[in-house]
Specification:
By secondary structure, the protein is of the alpha/beta class. Helices cover 40% and strands 12% of the residues. The chain has 17 helices and 15 strands. The strands form four sheets. Strands 7-8-9-6-10 form a five-stranded parallel β-sheet, with helices on both faces. Strands 11-12-13-15-14 form a five-stranded mixed β-sheet. Strands 2-3-4 form a three-stranded antiparallel β-sheet. β2 and β3 form a beta hairpin. The structure holds adenosine-5'-triphosphate and magnesium ion.
């Protein structure tokens, strides 16, 4: 209260008076709801600056962290942003898409999204990644002041995520963070929940949840970055942050530099303009959303379907899920145009998103990465051990010399064949090595579809009798080469 100008004396008499005043009933006194998280609140939108957009029928006092407020203060004008930043962004799909990502933060709650949308721009230095991200940040506030470092403590990142609730959180330069803890921090940040901590007086601190979009940049893709740190990226994790290459344009991050002398000059101008006019577009978009809430869900569904329709039917579920995220971004960018927050026409917004989605898809592929990881793991293990004594040779013909087990660490049996050796993997080796980290039955199905595991008749459907008195095993081959002349490991 002192900080807000209400002088409270330390004297015990004054404190008693204050307590008496507070206890004197609350009739006729204005009441305030104290909020510590920005974003949607009962139909209104609260900004970290304390501004409330909407027809608030009650007084709201924003109690969020003070040092996060400044970045959200608007500068210049919406017209200035439209004429400057948006004009330069035209014909630059990556710039437009990250703008869409910034707007998408505000619709996630309205469409009951289960998780936020993260996007990571990656490629070599001086390609325009930070410039694009600055433009996206200028939707909500000042790019430089909104920029956070991955190097920050988890608590500080949590606070930033809460302040950016229903908006976009911006973290530049992934390389700056501690690689070992980064994976967990990234996924916690985009997961929308802080971990509840035990309180000194017993019980647990309230877990806080948020729903926003997240934009980050770095020289390496986030999944590669985490893998290099020794962590295994799995399933849904790799689409929490969509790894988007930022060098797919004619001028790396950019496709059109308008009349500028070079991409470097263009990048500098874009960054300068994004600092001059900022923070107004997000507010205009929220005002439109308040008045048009009823059509947001159906708009998103329609745009998502347009993008999904372009996927091949065999696309993995994970790819469809990621495509839906691009659909939300596209819809947000389309709606922002309708709201007058940007000058972009609906088709222009959709086409820009589709162009970047295609660049993402070209790298990610349409298959499940988990399936490929299992196939690669199984094949690498077979290839590495195929000549080792871990495989005992089986006779092809009566009277052939048959090797005897020489290793205690036996993996199975091998039968040499002209069209590719056959390996009979013992059950423990299959579970602990070949399919390690995967659910065994699902792993069998995937390896079978990849042409590496024979489906047996009867019994459990997957193991066969190896030979007389040799028990059962998984009958496998190395991964078939697509091109027979190619040597593939
Ligand atoms: N597409 C581009 N082509 C040539 N030069 C560029 C391009 N984009 C940016 N630059 C130059 O690089 C400078 C830094 O731009 P920016 O911060 O956007 O790059 P970045 O990709 O984030 O680089 P870093 O990986 O070092 O962070 C700009 O001021 C500009 O001079
Ligand atoms: Mg950068």
């Amino acid at each position: 209260m002192n900080g807000l100008g209400f002088a409270v004396s330390a004297g015990s008499g004054e404190r008693v008076n204050l307590a008496n005043y507070l206890l004197q009933g609350t009739k006729n006194k204005p009441r305030f709801d104290v909020l510590s998280m920005s974003g949607w609140n009962q139909g209104n939108f609260v900004l970290p600056t304390g501004e409330i957009i909407g027809d608030a029928k009650r007084n709201i006092f924003f109690n969020g962290s003070a040092n996060l407020r400044g970045g959200f203060t608007p500068r210049g004008s919406l017209q200035g942003w439209n004429d400057g930043v948006c004009s330069l962004a035209r014909n630059n799909p990556l710039v437009m898409v990250v703008m869409g990502l910034a707007f998408s933060g505000a619709i996630l709650e309205l469409i009951d999204a289960e998780e936020g949308i993260g996007m990571h721009l990656y490629t070599e230095t001086s390609s325009g990644k930070t410039t694009c991200a600055d433009v996206a940040a200028s939707v909500w506030g000042h790019p430089k002041r909104l920029k956070k470092s991955w190097d920050a403590t988890p608590i500080s990142l949590t606070n930033s995520a809460q302040a950016a609730n229903s908006m976009m959180m911006y973290t530049d330069e992934i390389g700056a963070g501690d690689t070992r803890r980064l994976g967990k921090v990234i996924y916690a940040t985009i997961n929308g929940q802080s971990r509840g901590r035990g309180l000194a007086g017993g019980g647990n601190e309230e877990t806080k949840s948020w729903l926003n979009s997240l934009l980050s940049t770095g020289e390496l893709g986030i999944n590669q970055f985490i893998t290099e740190a020794g962590e295994q990226v799995k399933g849904g994790q790799e689409i929490r942050m969509l790894d988007v290459p930022a060098d797919g344009g004619l001028y790396r991050a950019f496709d059109c530099i308008h009349d500028y002398m070079g991409a470097d000059v263009f990048a500098k101008e874009l960054a300068t303009q994004a600092r001059r006019d900022c923070g107004n577009a997000g507010r205009a978009f929220v005002e439109w959303l308040i008045n048009n809430q009823a059509q947001v869900k159906s708009w998103v569904t329609k745009t998502e379907s347009r993008l999904l329709a372009e996927l091949p039917s065999h696309a993995a579920p994970l790819v469809r899920r990621a495509t839906r995220k691009f659909g939300i971004i596209a819809a947000a960018l389309e709606m922002a145009g309708e709201a007058g927050a940007t000058p972009f026409a609906q088709e222009e917004a959709f086409d820009a998103t589709r162009a970047i989605w295609r660049r993402w898809l070209a790298v990610f592929g349409t298959e499940s990465r988990d399936d490929n990881r299992l196939i690669d793991q199984a094949n690498a293990i077979l290839a590495a051990n195929q000549m080792s004594p871990r495989f005992v040779l089986l006779a092809n013909h009566e009277g052939d010399y048959v090797g005897e087990p020489v290793s205690v660490n036996m993996m199975g049996y091998k039968r040499i064949q002209a069209d590719g050796d056959i390996f009979y993997i013992l059950p423990h080796a299959f579970k602990d090595e070949i399919a390690k980290g995967f659910e065994p039955r699902k792993a069998c199905k995937i390896l079978h579809e990849a042409g590496m595991l024979e489906r047996a008749k009867g019994h459990d459907g997957w193991t066969v009798v190896i030979a007389r008195k040799k028990g059962r095993g998984y009958k496998m081959k190395l991964k078939p080469c697509k091109n027979p002349d190619e040597t593939e490991l």
